[in-house]
Write a structure and sequence with these properties.
Lysozyme-like, alpha/beta, 239 residues, two-stranded antiparallel sheet, 2 domains
Length: 239
């Protein structure tokens, strides 16, 4: 990994613009509870002015927030918390009927203001980073979720500009096809996918934000078909 003394040597084989994983330890972490191991990856955006500003906040003891990784707009990759530890990125929320998402996930912060497209170097590094994480921890593509998926009442990141289809094409996430049935109740499919059991309109908004960005209006056959196809994909990975 070169001569950088801060470069990580924990199994990453990056094929992106990032040539090294830069270690920048954050004090904001703890042990994973109840013997949990990573089974999810949660993607966030920083919504800050710069990578350095995000780095400072994620390593500030007073802020009490952190993530395992931070990816800059230029494709640089920092590791702030070791995978084996519990970073403080997810907060209140749940997925697949269980809370304490921090204990069973790896958090990745993406340097983005929430309104701009995600840069090509950032996406290239993310793909390489995700591929290594999923392989190392045997996490299926359905285990890569948005912060907005597990906390839809309070979060929208990584937002409608994030290219989930790109990740799905690389086998790093999931995306709906036309195989689903519009006769399947949307609530049934969203339960199977893992969405928290909150108000139906909030669940629909969270689902659309990720899988049908720009869609508005009442629940439709398109929503039900997409959700059913995703639930089937998720079920295949869970077998």
């Amino acid at each position: 990994m070169g001569s950088n003394p801060n470069a990580a040597s924990d199994g990453f084989k990056l094929t992106s613009v990032a040539s090294v994983v830069i270690r920048h330890p954050s004090p904001n972490f703890g042990p994973r509870r109840n013997g949990e191991r990573p089974s999810l990856v949660v993607l966030h955006y920083t919504e800050m002015l710069s990578t350095q500003a995000a780095l400072q906040r994620l390593c500030d003891p007073g802020a009490e927030v952190s993530s395992h990784y931070l990816i800059g707009r230029d494709g640089a990759l920092w590791q702030l918390v070791d995978d084996k530890h519990r970073a403080w990125h997810a907060g209140q929320g749940e997925w697949l009927g269980r809370g304490d998402v921090n204990s069973r996930s790896i958090g990745i912060e993406l340097d983005n203001d929430g309104a701009s497209p995600f840069s090509a170097p950032l996406m290239q590094t993310l793909e390489s980073c995700l591929a290594a994480i999923l392989s190392r921890w045997d996490i299926p593509p359905s285990g890569v979720i948005a912060h907005s998926d597990m906390a839809p009442e309070r979060k929208i990141d990584p937002g409608p500009r994030f290219d989930w289809q790109r990740l799905a094409r690389s086998g790093l996430s999931i995306w709906p096809d036309q195989s689903g049935s519009p006769a399947t109740a949307l609530s049934t499919s969203l339960d199977a996918l893992g969405y928290p059991k909150i108000h139906a309109s909030q669940r629909l908004d969270a689902f659309r934000l990720r899988f049908r960005p720009g869609t508005t209006g009442p629940e439709s056959d398109g929503d039900r078909r997409a959700a059913d196809s995703l639930a089937k994909i998720h079920h295949t990975f869970e077998k």
